[in-house]
């Protein structure tokens, strides 16, 4: 099980350590630093590292490394999932998961870690339960606490801890009862040089924000549930109802949570909302090249595509770029060689384009690799898979809640090869 | 104000200041001080000097303060054990608190204080908490048992906590069940033999019920525990699978992967014709693919596991090739894994797509990745014949890019393509030769030299090309040197006229100027071959090469099966069994897939030892080869230890001082090895017989010849433990000579050669009388039968048990150790008949304490039949009497080392049991002689 945890920042300082069994010396992290050095890029540090006496399993989140020390055979996924849960909890408590936030709240962090894991076994990881045990810091509370001397540690057993619905606490009360659902779909795609789709799939999630009093029992149905054949559920969802009726039936946690995540992969269902015309070329034996890209709408279902940004990692030999754009603005960082073009909205009348000259290091051979274009965009009020919520019913409580569903489609890992 | 204020220090001396604050009267100030202490602790600062002051703050109603003090205690109690005792009273009191949160907190913290003195005080509160009315306390207490066990295992056993823990598996609260399972699994890991998690259909049912209701982490523990269970038949396996399948839709990837493990393992038991089998296969694909959309760290672990799953059951993901396409911003460790899986999934149907992708990757930036992509193209060519041409042209395109490392990798893989498809693509050689100068890596240089040497007759300037390498011969790596030597010899054999000088030059370089023994030896061999018989040299050097296999890097099937049982664990990430890397190797139990139980396929897997086998019938294999020196000659000096330690003094068998007792432990009769079928679960139908009948035929044929009973062959060394070599065998005695009949099976993917065998010293001096003769190399899936003659003149050492024989077998791969028990009757000599008078005198002479009595049950034979049956195994009837309707047989036998054993056998007509009394000057052997009687009479 998980023996110890070290938090390490990007410059290699260990700024927090927690041990659940006996104390493991910080020097074990040297193996991690060694691997980090080898990997060159922070993102490329392998997640599982073996050392003579321990295993180090790490994640990289928000510019921090969470490095856990393992001594016995243990499922690595379990450790990684748990570490992500720790990072999520910090995010939830402090608004951000950063070194500063953790250092500012070091005692709460320590209390949280102690509450989340006992002897390496996860104890309470649900945000609802944790918040009853240890109250998140607020400015108001710290003022009140310092006057009244009360503490931010709950002294009763959280109600959800042992019930069959550990994710919900009892006695929730709201004056405005609301239930909102966000259907968010991200398109992951690889488009090849000629513009045909090599690979495309939709990663969708339904995030819920539920503020309902008492013990509401909800069921959410879809117009076209058949789209969902590869789904991961929040533990609150009754699997049998879904199997038999294709209805999501659940008693929700209080507050924000991810209800389901799903994947739509059949090629014909995944529409590609933008196209890119590109021509990037480098001349042999001369220190310049041409760069020209134009972006336009494709299967966009009549909606506006907005928030478009194009990011390009140019080859190392590129010194500078002299470009003109018809829309938006661009920057080129000569150190990281990253070109960012902030396009904004597409208006079909005048397609945005970016073109100009590329200056190369003189004397260097012409680059072999062609850069990939990474594209970000957003389409409001549309789930690109066509998924639509039919209705939401509530049982178990008498009041009438406000209900709402929002749809949005974004680019996930959307890349165009040139 | 934030907590960062706790880090500020003053010049006066922090500890001093904190001490004052901790002893302050004001509650608030105290709490702030403790917080400062904790803050220092989190960054690894030593604040242990404040121990007494912090502990003084423990007696408080403020829960936050209490928790903070507890945090401190856990960290420092070990360094201040005497002081820690001060805290005990508060703990004990807190364990009685009306608030369950406080009770749980107290028992949890106490378990974390790793101080011996405290653990004694922990027992009573823990016992109470394990039976607490509040499930929150019970589940915390369950984990505490595991903590305590880690500190003091004996104490936990003595106090009976393990039984209480087992009872908690039936608790009404699913969270308690999950924690009990987790605690038991952790304890079981350090006690592999303890059978703590004794799983039966009832407890499985309870676990499956709890599975639906407990937290995600609990589900992981329960699923991992379920995976260790072996269902009794396919129906049970199916019903468990049905109840586990919903877990595949869980949001927690660890739950999903643990569920996949259970399903992959139990699927093994389902018949492929079953509709359900197909449904299950279909259900497995989506969750595996979904794992790939998670964070990169999760993807990595998932991909390592998918790599195993794809090798075991390629059909699951065969349509999902595209999800493994590499994305531009994947971390490198994800890219490399994806590439590996792409090649495994490549088939004729999708090869065009795969190749287009690989070509794309070959122009990426990351060098490691590009290299692997180029290699992958070569592997595709070898795997999918139809694509070979396209692969070769893709590789040629890549060579045209002139990117140094791409060219080198391409040349290495083209060499393999030449070997796989001889005489097909040699037209590209000219292009390859153009790039000769740019090669600077040994592997690429060696590959190029191989190509030039192999196709010397088609390359006009082959001699020039090779000569150019020769200049810096001594600066080359061994790989290149060896290849150059062979290459030039090949060239000489093909074009002897113009290359004589060249070959002499290389031979002298290799033999005279090199201090590398491999190179020198190879040089001398070529030299002698060429000088004595050039025709033979041609046959040897230019011999037709065996085809290379289609798939490279495949994991050996036996290892793969074991790894499938470890899906989701570290073993699955490293693709090694846990025994190969788990710290200290504290008795790791090998896992194996359950055998398929549908009767029609039963013969398929009798070698995977299922749980149904009675203990002791499996020959024990000496574990942890790593510990033993892989040196056969060392065997005598450092005998491998299996089970009981060996007595070190060697005993002369002639002198009858075999005293030493300890033979009682042998009860349970293990001196003949059960036929392998006995290991197949009882639910199997009859049709096993067919597969084995020829085994019996074989042995009975031998048996009628000159008598001595021969047990059917049993597996002595399972393939799993010997890198694919499986050894089964038995012992025979024929006309005065003993032999060991072996059957060697190669279940690995590579050819095995160079077999040798050696015995450790043993009680009767058994030793091989001739070397192990395996004439031809053993190719994969081939089996060979060998009879190894044995002598009894080897060196002697008393073994425990007496008839234990430790054997080392060596082949080109490694040295393997196993031990087996030989039946004693192979040692009964032919001149074992004693004279009547002599018998009487000896019987009287041996003291009565040495007499041992045994009952042989279920032996419905009459005196004559018994007598003749025994005689064929060299047990001779000296006299026969009839006393009160009972037949008394007086018998004698002699062992190879001269020990006489006298026997009185009482047979009652109509009663299937008979009584055996044995008298011998070395009473230790009696037990084994009795077992020999049993074996002979019952077969």
TrEMBL record, chain A:
Q: What is this protein called?
A: AP-3 complex subunit mu-1
Q: Which residues form the MHD domain?
A: 176-417
User: Any keyword Membrane?
Assistant: yes
What superkingdom heads the lineage? Eukaryota
Q: Could you tell me the membrane topology recorded for this protein?
A: Peripheral membrane protein
GO CC, sorted alphabetically, is: axon cytoplasm; clathrin adaptor complex; cytoplasmic vesicle; cytoplasmic vesicle membrane; Golgi apparatus; postsynaptic recycling endosome
**InterPro entries per the UniProt record, alphabetical:** Adaptor_comp_med_subunit, AP2_Mu_C_sf, AP_mu_sigma_su, Clathrin_mu, Clathrin_mu_CS, Longin-like_dom_sf, MHD
Q: Which gene encodes it?
A: AP3M1
Q: List the Pfam families hit by this protein, alphabetically.
A: Adap_comp_sub, Clat_adaptor_s
**Is Transport one of the keywords?**
yes
TrEMBL record, chain B:
Question: Do you know which InterPro entries this protein is assigned to?
Answer: AP_beta, AP_complex_bsu_1_2_4, ARM-like, ARM-type_fold, Armadillo, B-adaptin_app_sub_C, Clathrin/coatomer_adapt-like_N, Clathrin_a/b/g-adaptin_app_Ig
What topology does it adopt in the membrane? Peripheral membrane protein
Gene Ontology terms, MF aspect: clathrin binding
The Gene Ontology CC terms held by the record are: clathrin adaptor complex; cytoplasmic vesicle; endomembrane system; lysosomal membrane
Q: Which domain of life is it from?
A: Eukaryota
Which biological process annotations from GO are given for this protein? intracellular protein transport; vesicle-mediated transport
Q: Where does the Beta-adaptin appendage C-terminal subdomain domain lie?
A: 828-938
Which residue ranges does the record assign to the Clathrin adaptor alpha/beta/gamma-adaptin appendage Ig-like subdomain domain? 709-819
Predominantly, its location class is membrane
Where is composition skewed (Low complexity) in this entry?
597-611
Q: Which Pfam families match?
A: Adaptin_N (PF01602), Alpha_adaptinC2 (PF02883), B2-adapt-app_C (PF09066)
State the residue spans of region: Disordered: 592-625
- Which keywords, in A-to-Z order, does the entry hold? Acetylation, Membrane, Protein transport, Transport
Compartments, as annotated in UniProt: Endomembrane system
UniProt family annotation = Belongs to the adaptor complexes large subunit family.
Name-wise, this protein is AP complex subunit beta
Name of the gene this protein is made from: AP1B1
